[in-house]
Design brief:
With 275 residues, the chain is an alpha+beta fold. 21% of the residues lie in helices and 30% in strands. The chain contains 6 helices and 10 strands; from the N terminus they run H-E-E-E-E-H-E-H-H-H-H-E-E-E-E-E. Strand 2 and strand 3 form a beta hairpin.
């Protein structure tokens, strides 16, 4: 995946999607979504999606004058079956401080330029074999995604292996949920692989329902959440469409990774729409 240093990006659109029913358990929601074909590209065709979102730029981490700014940007992404990709920046927002303390620390640091490394109209490319449908740790190429196992345990084994740098280190549920969010939103899965990927969420410890919410595009969905390591990760799902709308990460406790951010602060968002 193309490296976007310092900022996590995500998609923007318009309109709201009503949620037609509520569910009494994470299992009921997951089984409902897994039971139909849902959305997303199937194997063989290029993947095209729009990814708009929100993320953090952290300066001087670990120092008394550390500060954080946040930025929103939108990208249009096309991925070929070779796992080559073209990424066009549709809009790149201006970084903004999260708190008055962040601004004061920026001033104390000499008012350095705040730069996300992105510019509207910028085009980036990944060569063949380089684009990953998982955002962290190890790459999952187009062909690997298309060839995922068709059992929940098999899909989980692949995602778990790609979510850690050592087989002796178990990835936290928060990371796994984020990985599955990207996989289900943008990967070229077969119908059987997509159904198995949804049901693999039933095997991730601690996944629970966490109410309804609205994504950056104004669509309403139902949340599946997991907590751990000072974070909560939420996947926002449209059950009627069988679609994964958004992945967001918020703090459950203060973190040196996000200076100045209080518990409850949303620090990363990825919202996905068709291209």
């Amino acid at each position: 995946m193309i490296a976007l240093t310092g900022v996590v990006l995500a998609g923007c659109g318009a309109g709201t999607t009503p949620v037609p029913r509520t569910y009494d358990s994470a299992r009921a929601l997951i089984e409902s979504v897994a039971g139909h074909s849902g959305t997303g590209s199937g194997p063989g065709a290029p993947v095209h999606y729009r990814d708009t979102g929100f993320g953090a730029l952290v300066y001087n981490p670990g120092t008394p004058n550390a500060f954080t700014a946040y930025v929103t940007a939108t990208r249009d992404v096309t991925v070929q079956p070779s796992s080559a990709a073209s990424v066009r920046v549709i809009s790149a927002g201006t970084p903004e401080f999260g708190t008055a303390t962040d601004r004061a620390h920026w001033q104390a640091a000499g008012r350095p330029a705040l730069d996300s490394g992105l510019a509207t109209g910028q085009v980036m490319a990944d060569p063949a074999g380089q684009f990953s449908f998982l955002p962290q740790v190890k790459a999952l190429t187009y062909q690997q995604a298309a060839a995922l196992p068709t059992t929940p345990a098999g899909v989980l084994a692949v995602v778990r292996a790609d979510s850690t740098s050592s087989p002796d280190v178990a990835p936290p549920a928060t990371l796994l949920l984020r990985q599955f969010g990207f996989l289900l939103a943008i990967a070229p899965l077969s119908p059987a692989g997509r159904s198995a990927a949804w049901r693999a969420l039933l095997l991730v410890p601690g996944v629970r329902l966490c109410g309804t919410a609205t994504d950056l595009a104004g669509r309403t969905g139902q949340g599946l959440c997991a907590d751990g390591d000072g974070y909560e990760v939420e996947m926002l799902v449209d059950p009627a469409a069988g679609a994964m709308l958004e992945v967001r990460k918020s703090l459950t406790q203060r973190s040196v990774m996000y200076p100045g951010a209080a518990p409850g602060k949303v620090v990363e968002v990825d919202t996905f729409l068709p291209g």
